[in-house]
Amino acid sequence: MSTDKNITSVLKETRQFPPQTEFVAQANVNAAERERLAEWAKSDPDGFWAEQGRSLHWFKPWDAVLDWTNVPHAKWFVGGTINASFNCLDRHLAARGNKAAIVWEGEPGDTRTLTYQQLHREVCKFANALKGLGVGKGDRVTIYMPMVPETAVAMLACARIGAMHSVVFGGFSADAVADRNNDAQSKLVITADGGWRRGKVVPLKANVDAALEKSPSVQKCVVLNRCNTAVEMKPGRDVWWHDLVADASADCPAEELDSEHPLFILYTSGSTGKPKGVLHTTGGYLLGTSLTHKWVFDIKEDDVYWCTADVGWITGHSYIVYGPLCNGATVVMYEGAPNQPREDRFWEIVAKYKVTILYTAPTAIRAFIKWGDQHPKAHDLSSLRLLGSVGEPINPEAWIWYHNVIGGGRCPIVDTWWQTETGAIMISPLPGAVATKPGSATKPLPGIQAEVVDKQGHPVPAGSGGFLVVKRPWPSMMRTIYGDDERYKATYWSNYPGVYFTADGARQDEDGYIWVMGRVDDVLNVSGHRLSTMEVESALVQHPKVAEAAVVGRPDDLKGEGIVCFVTLKQGTNPSDELKTELKAHVVHNIGALARPDDVRFSETLPKTRSGKIMRRFLRDIAAGRQTTGDATTLEDFAVLAKLREDDE
Ligand code: WT7
């Protein structure tokens, strides 16, 4: 497993960083307050969540905080009515109308700032335009966009009228867009001609054109002109964003929606080849994201907050759009690559906008380390006061570099553990309350009952590895897998009845700190992006020359995990380097660039158990270049080993 290196290093990691006095003095939550919240949540969870829930604007108050009678289907703030768009916009108009909501910079260097007033106006106009296209409450809308303010506008416009958005990351292929359109039965796709990435235009509209050939549910397509590139506009189907909003009214009252009204679907990879449409609803999700944004990022009125994720992932949903905007924060949004035009682009942005809070991923941090200290050192980073990390375990070396070189030794680091499914941060230090240890996400937030247990569900002793679970429902938890409730129950709730299974392995140290090691299922974490081995396998076997494929992760110093594919070819096909290149391109075409294999290896057979299950553990050893047993390191020995190890997985 890719995490072995981390396990060894974190086991040796003993450094501790207590919150610094100056930070504590101004913190939203200090140690005593954290203790009070945690105790309260334990002794009176309903009362605790009710009090937190009151931070949102409700049209009609709820009758009950939680209904957990139909396990594992929770209802939060039952009977209450609310609107996420109203909470993110309308509520701020009086006090923050002229405050910057989104400060945006495009990759070529163009910039735009939208105040809360302006964002509200754009959202209302676009919401009316959506209605004009026949989109209404409960309809699904696919959003396949670059990182531009209009992406947030589109999301908030859907939320305003009660349509569910399904944002598909712009790095996914046409086929992936089509699959998601079909699974959600989307009525509308919102896209752009393209988006800028490393000086080139990603042809989003062309991908949508290809996707729509296979997406019969989609009736209309809205196209934003971002890059001024020529695109085909299909009459009767495609319409320009600017034409749509030109005459749209800016008056669009937010729909009063049930607290449990679906807010969005977000597809993520699981153990099978088919991505899961994780469904989040309105009230609980909005509370989870805004509350954790306040607590973990210690957000203040004059902060300039920058989360570098793409809006196409849950981090972008929760910590670029819903959490921060619900809190009335100023959010920085950047369109492009961190090394365009040079490797100092992030630091230029931090200095230019005087960013105070930076939230990024370990894989990015490792790239910055590789690119050299001269890049951050060339810029004034003194505005920074807090740093965040998300997406994969952060190795202590990267943590220390982040702390010293980016944070100047003065900024706390919040290593935040959570998942698409959890909606919001679950395990993280509160920066003014919890001493950090490099590599540990520290402790569950108040109200979150995360524990490390063995196969039987018993807590494991300090230091031993186990499975990370969550024992009580929480407001921002996913509600189901869209269109596949059986899979929801089987994936998350069948290992331990009534307990949420995260599929992460972890251990807890003698101070109760949690060290997340990585996935225990067939999910890869490649540069912080989640990918299922079976997704890549099913792409490979769609190639006419491939008979069988097995895909595993291997440790990668930059990406966390790299993708290694073991492939058996159809009779009469000869292995060659050209074919390797062709297969890599085939996977990219099928899924997207994020799934590009690092290595393709041809083999006569694949090691399998008697029941036909591929022996991944063995393949992982081979991929990592590790010795397994004796000298059995070549694929030719697979058949023999398969027999010897048939009970092994
Ligand atoms: C998986 C969820 C939720 C934000 C982005 C990823 C891994 C996430 C951490 C962390 C160790 C982490 C887990 C998890 N992960 N954050 N701070 N430390 N591992 O969301 O795509 O749903 O992936 O990412 O393995 O299960 P996601």
List the helices and strands and how they pair.
Elements: H1 4-12, H2 21-26, H3 31-43, H4 45-53, E1 64-67, E2 75-78, E3 81-82, H5 84-88, H6 93-96, E4 100-105, E5 111-115, H7 116-132, E6 140-144, H8 149-161, E7 164-167, H9 174-184, E8 188-192, E9 195-197, E10 200-202, H10 204-212, E11 220-224, E12 238-240, H11 241-246, E13 257-258, E14 262-268, E15 276-281, H12 282-296, E16 304-307, H13 314-326, E17 330-334, H14 345-353, E18 357-360, H15 362-371, H16 374-377, E19 386-390, H17 396-406, E20 413-416, E21 450-453, E22 465-470, E23 480-481, H18 485-493, E24 500-508, E25 514-519, E26 523-526, E27 529-532, H19 533-541, E28 546-556, E29 560-569, H20 577-590, E30 599-602, H21 616-623, H22 638-644
Parallel strand pairs: 4-17, 6-7, 6-8, 7-14, 8-11, 11-12, 16-17, 16-18, 18-19, 19-20, 29-30
Antiparallel strand pairs: 1-2, 3-13, 4-5, 9-10, 14-15, 15-23, 21-22, 22-24, 24-25, 26-27, 28-29
GO cellular component, one term: cytosol
Pfam families: ACAS_N, AMP-binding, AMP-binding_C
Keywords: Acetylation, ATP-binding, Ligase, Magnesium, Metal-binding, Nucleotide-binding
